[in-house]
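User: Hey, my collaborator sent me this sequence without any context and asked if I could get a structure. I don't really work with proteins. Can you help?
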Amino acid sequence: MKKKSKRYQKLIELKIKDKKIDIKKIIEFVKKNSNTKFDESIDVSLRINLKQSKGGDLSLRTVVKLPNGTGKKSKIAVLCEPEKFDEAKKSGAEIVGSDDLIEKIAAGKFDFTKLICTPAMMGKIGKHGKVLGPKGLMPNPKLGTVTNDILKAVKDIKTGLTEIRNDKDGNLASSIGRKSFSSEKILENYNYFIEFLKKEKPSTIKGEFIKNIFITSTMGISYKVGAK
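Assistant: No problem. I've predicted the 3D structure and written it out in C-alpha cell form, which is a compact way to encode the shape of the chain:
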C-alpha cells in the first residue's frame, strides 16, 4: 500500500465533515490547502445522470469557454494548406504545417496539446484518427477544431475553450482555474460551468441531471458541494 506523504496526511486532518458546506467556503478551503510550490489546478468533478427515459445512455461531449479561462496553457498545432501558413503563424499557433506535419504525426511525434485542422486537410488526417483520437487530439467540427477561421480557433483555445466529456460511468471533470486565481474568479467560473451543464440536459433525461459535485486541487483533497 502506497504511503501518504506528511503534507497529504495534514490535509486529511483539516478535512471538513460537514456535508452541507457551500461552494464559497469550499473554494476558500481548496485554495488554502493548495500548498505545493506550483500553481495547482482547481478542478470540478461531478457525476451526471446518464439514463434516458427512451433507453440507452447519454454521451455528452462539448466545449465550454469559462469567463475567466482555466489558466492552462496549450501548445497548438495547425494543419492547413501552405497558403494559410502566414495566417496560422500570426494567430499564435506554436506549430504550423501541412504534409510535413502529417508525416510527424504518422511517426508518433506529438509535440502539441491541441490540433486545429482546416476542412481541406481533414481527408489527409482522417486515417490517423486511431492514433489521435485516444489522445484527445483528433480535430472535430463540433469542438471548433475543424475550421477555416484559424485566428478565432486559436484565440478561443488560448483564452480557455475547454472540452468536456463524460466517461461510461457518467463521471465528468474540468479545470475551473488555478490556485493563483482569486476566489471570486474561481466562483464565477464554477457557476458558469454548472449552469452550462444544466442547459445541456437532454429532454429525455428525467429527474436531476447532476447527481453530485466535488471540488479539489491537483495535489489536494476533495470537498463535496452541498446545498447553499
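In plain terms: The longest helix spans residues 183-199. You can pass these C-alpha cells on to your collaborator as they are.
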